[in-house]
Design brief:
The complex is a heterodimer of chains A (294) and B (337). Chain A has 294 residues and is mostly helical. In chain A, α3 crosses α11 and α4 runs parallel beside α7. Chain B is mostly helical and 337 residues long. Chain B has 14 helices and no strands. In chain B, α5 packs antiparallel against α11, α9 packs across α11 and α10 packs across α11. At the A-B interface, α5, α6, α9, α10 and α11 of A face α1, α6, α7, α11 and α12 of B.
């Protein structure tokens, strides 16, 4: 890491970042691999419905429960639908739920935490109390309760996933804003006559931002697991919509009679996606903050 | 020690109040008219009005909250719409099944994760260390319901070693007389080894599923904290004094390295209690999680509310226990308090 510190300043921000990224990727090929997987997932989410060989909803009872073959790569389910097509098409919905919930908590938790750390006092106490109360619940259980109360829709799964992640973001943002509150550059901005809000927006937020972005990629995996878990127990997504969690739930009944491909492939997709986000998050963290490396 | 425990107990009270307020607010967040919701889909306007008065929903929010708290103090969690049974009784009857499963899962997980973490830390970059890293990364990426299904496929369908994933005991067996509610302990107390084996067989796969899931954070934390302790001065001194590797690692390093691991247990419990719901669904386990899921799908809200409250109270209590345990393991914490 020492040669990074020695990088001449004159090189410019973007070039330095690229150099640093290349260095990190070179040292840790796993991050490169995870990034490749990420690109694949994004492509599947964007173009999935256009490239799959079969209609994910078209049932064909004459071809029900067929084992994986060259015609149906991942086999067919109990209604004769092509599992491969369903797994690929489902990427969009799962990815969307994860991104939306993480973006939501990024806004809510990030802003609340930064305000709490910067203003202190009552703001801090209220945000802290809300975070503590959420943390007093086992998170998945709370998410279940929220979806049950707000109504059984995809939108509410997103909201519930965002709420259970709130304390994590609020705490990190609070801590980062708090240590910068009396930093030299903030004092300088204050002495030059900037208002509190202006300092918060232009001095504190840009500094806390990269740390929260790393947190986003670290929680993406958890968000996908949480949402898939909720749809596995029958919340949110309804059949016949292709979604990984519900596909595993539908395939579960066939596991005991040996038709493993029904639940296996959507579960595998889920696992690969979570694995990819976790690795990517670790890699991003190394890039932004080499000290926290484990 | 007593003072510290009491202080910690006092700190748990705000959490409990928060939990009660949130579970209360969850019922009020129901879309539409809560009275219509509680009365069921086929209710007449008159019936809805009756329910409204019966539940006190015509009174101001703060009065309703007062009623809710009074009910809670009397152990009344409402009545399930689908079964007509009081929620508290059902939860009480089903809780041992969930507790037995979760505790066994945790024990298995600790028995695997802690030695793995210690061995990985004593031999960095060895095969064991890499195994530890792969296991802990894969463990957090595996959806718990997926692991359960794979285990069922391999051990029930392919190998035929495990019984069908259908509940706590095969239908041919009679549950042991209830003393603790844990089938393993009750059957042993009754001296019925056959039932003991039968219930153990049913328990192994779901407990293993939970263990695989919770292994990752424990192994990771044990490894990291052992690495930190092993490079500290007092371990070097102990080594230089010629103590055996076993004494240095177990007596000196392990005891100090355990502290962060105990702290992690709090987070592990949060995951375990949530994962429990999914595992119960996969293995048709008659615990409180599957009770809540059934109620959720039937739009029967009282059991869900009772379930969320029970889980949260248990979680607060477990965190309390962990903090007290921390004081037992580390005398310095006692002095600070």
């Amino acid at each position: 890491m020492t040669d990074i510190a020695a990088t001449p300043r004159a090189e410019g921000g973007l070039t330095a970042l690229l150099r640093h990224s290349r260095y990190v990727l070179g040292e840790n090929p796993v991050t490169g691999f995870a990034f490749g997987l990420f690109v694949l997932i994004v492509l599947a989410a964007l173009f999935g419905p256009h490239i799959v060989p079969y209609d994910p909803l078209a049932s064909d009872t004459t071809a029900a429960l067929q084992a994986p073959s060259t015609r149906h790569w991942f086999g067919t389910d109990q209604l004769g639908r092509d599992v491969f097509s369903r797994v690929v098409v489902a990427t969009r919905l799962d990815f969307f739920i994860a991104v939306a919930s993480v973006a939501l908590v990024f806004l809510m938790g990030g802003l609340a935490g930064v305000a709490a750390g910067f203003f202190g006092g009552w703001t801090d106490r209220i945000v802290g109390r809300i975070a503590d109360t959420i943390m007093a619940f086992p998170l998945f259980v709370l998410a279940m309760g929220i979806v049950a109360a707000l109504g059984n829709t995809v939108q509410n799964i997103i909201i519930a996933t965002a709420i259970v992640n709130f304390p994590l973001y609020a705490r990190i943002a609070r801590a980062e804003a708090n240590i910068r509150r009396d930093a030299g550059f903030v004092e300088a901005a204050r002495l030059s006559g900037n208002s509190d809000w202006r300092i918060l927006t232009f001095q504190i937020l840009p500094n806390v931002f990269p740390i929260l972005v790393v947190q986003m990629s670290l929680t993406m995996g958890y968000a996908i697991l949480n949402a898939a878990g909720l749809s596995f127990i029958g919340l949110g997504v309804r059949p016949p919509t292709p979604e990984w969690g519900i596909m595993v739930a539908e395939g579960a009944a066939f596991m005991v009679s040996g038709e493993w491909w029904n639940a296996f492939f959507p579960g595998l997709a889920l696992m690969v996606a979570v694995f990819c986000f976790n690795l990517l998050g670790d890699g991003l963290r190394d890039m932004v903050d080499p000290r926290r490396r484990t | 020690m007593l003072i510290m425990t009491l202080k910690r107990l006092a700190m748990a009270i705000p959490s409990l109040i928060g939990v009660v307020i949130v579970t209360f607010l969850l019922t009020r967040a129901l879309p539409g008219d809560p009275a219509a919701y509680f009365a069921g889909p086929a209710a007449t306007p008159q019936a809805i009005q009756e329910v409204r008065v019966k539940l006190g929903l015509d009174k101001p929010l703060i009065v309703q909250f007062g009623h809710y708290v009074v009910d809670l103090i009397h152990g009344n969690l409402g009545t399930s719409l689908t079964t007509g049974q009081p929620v508290a009784t059902e939860l009480h009857n089903r809780l041992p099944a969930s507790a037995e499963l979760t505790l066994l899962g945790l024990i298995v997980s600790i028995l695997i994760a802690v030695p793995l973490g210690i061995l990985a830390a004593t031999k960095p970059n060895s095969i064991l260390d890499h195994t530890c890293r792969i296991v802990s990364t894969a463990g957090v990426s595996l959806p718990v319901f997926f692991t359960g299904l794979i285990l069922v496929y391999v051990f029930y369908y392919l190998l035929g070693w495990a019984p069908a994933p259908l509940g706590r005991l095969d239908v041919f067996f009679i549950p042991p007389p209830q003393i603790t509610g844990f089938y393993l302990i009750d059957s042993l107390l009754a001296g019925d080894l056959e039932t003991f084996w039968a219930s153990l067989k049913q328990l192994i796969l779901p407990a293993l599923t939970l263990a695989i899931f919770s292994l990752a954070p424990i192994a990771r934390m044990t490894r990291a904290s052992m690495l930190a302790v092993l490079s500290s001065d007092f371990v070097r001194t102990a080594r230089a004094s010629g103590l055996s590797a076993y004494t240095v690692i177990i007596t000196y390093a392990f005891r100090n390295a355990m502290l962060p691991v105990i702290t992690t247990l709090g987070m592990v419990f949060s995951f375990l209690l949530g994962a429990n719901v999914l595992v119960e669904k996969v293995f048709a386990w008659p615990g409180i999680g599957s009770y809540a899921v059934e109620a959720l799908l039937a739009s029967d809200f009282a059991p869900v509310q009772g379930f969320v409250l029970t889980m949260a109270v248990m979680y607060v209590a477990l965190n309390l226990l962990i903090d007290v345990l921390y004081g037992v393991v580390d005398p310095r914490v006692r002095l600070d308090a």
